[in-house]
Amino acid sequence: xxxxxxxxxxxxxxxxxxxxxxxxxxxxxxxxxxxxxxxxxxxxxxxxxxxxxxxxxxxxxxxxxxxxxxxxxxxxxxxxxxxxxxxxxxxxxxxxxxxxxxxxxxxxxxxxxxxxxxxxxxxxxxxxxxxxxxxxxxxxxxxxxxxxxxxxxxxxxxxxxxxxxxxxxxxxxxxxxxxxxxxxxxxxxxxxxxxxxxxxxxxxxxxxxxxxxxxxxxxxxxxxxxxxxxxxxxxxxxxxxxxxxxxxxxxxxxxxxxxxxxxxxxxxxxxxxxxxxxxxxxxxxxxxxxxxxxxxxxxxxxxxxxxxxxxxxxxxxxxxxxxxxxxxxxxxxxxxxxxxxxxxxxxxxxxxxxxxxxxxxxxxxxxxxxxxxxxxxxxxxxxxxxxxxxxxxxxxx
Length: 397
Known about the structure:
The chain has helices spanning 34-40, 88-98, 102-114, 134-145, 154-158, 181-192, 249-254, 257-266, 287-295, 299-314, 324-333, 340-350, 387-395; strands at residues 4-8, 11-19, 25-31, 50-52, 54-56, 67-68, 71-73, 122-126, 149-151, 170-173, 195-198, 206-209, 213-218, 234-238, 319-322, 360-367, 373-380, 383-386. By secondary structure, it is α/β, with parallel strands linked by helices. It has three domains: 4-73, no CATH class; 88-294, P-loop containing nucleotide triphosphate hydrolases (Rossmann fold, 3-Layer(aba) Sandwich); 298-395, no CATH class. Helix 2 (88-98) crosses helix 3 (102-114). The longest helix is centred in the last third of the chain and has 16 residues, at 299-314. It is elongated, with a radius of gyration of 28 Å.
């Protein structure tokens, strides 16, 4: 193989083929020096080296250009060439991952492939079961997008050094655990950012255009990452166990990638651009997302919902009337001491309930220390919670 060198700005690079464990090779640039070059090649060789003014990063998969003006495109071409054909293994696998949202899953892949600059939701695949295919999905994305996808650890998101992933199309974490609020805020902000300060050890920070999408996996179904009510940037899916264990599944799907890309290039999207993350928020709401949001609720709010749901189910009630003092007492039974103003904020701001205008007679149920319920009457400015409203609060995202 003929040796190849390039000069970008004032730095000399040698293009080498790095062997991979799979038996394939990956082309990489290694910083070289002129003394070694002169030892290996004749004097006039330097004049033949391709020269660029600097690096740029312009993602494209269909109309890729390595050179843009006098700059070298740091975004890598993908190796898979689209060709018409069938892809039954990939179809079955994507139906397993996305379930009833299969067409949306295809839309997500199509947008990645045809519109790499489009902002997309943070995908979070969760399941406490094993052999679900979560990691295989990440490996499938890697097979498609190659060097434009990278695998991060949880610590990588907290590190100040990010130059190795700041210009990637996909940033994946195979076992995410970023349950601190500041971690979630950082990923959320990055998912919609247009630029980012890339920093490497020993080098100044450099502002780059940022277009990365995040794909996260976790065995934790409750709080792998902090997601609060009203969040619109996450697409959470609980992945079931694969019905059949096929150790060659990834290899079989790789053979179908050409057909998949052809299909993605020519199919009609099933959704339209309705938000900054393309997909309308209500399309991204899943039971797995609701489960996480409910888990991350304020402790007092979560306990209130559990108490009220238990009373209404036990007593077969369609509505329940109660005053703030009733709820304070029931929370104390559960071991929580909560101030009246805090409960009023939850009831009126979070749940959008209003008390009666004046103090009135009402009948209600309260919780005893042994877990049973007790009927009582009283007078006060009471709230009325219907079963329908309770279910709506539990389902809100």
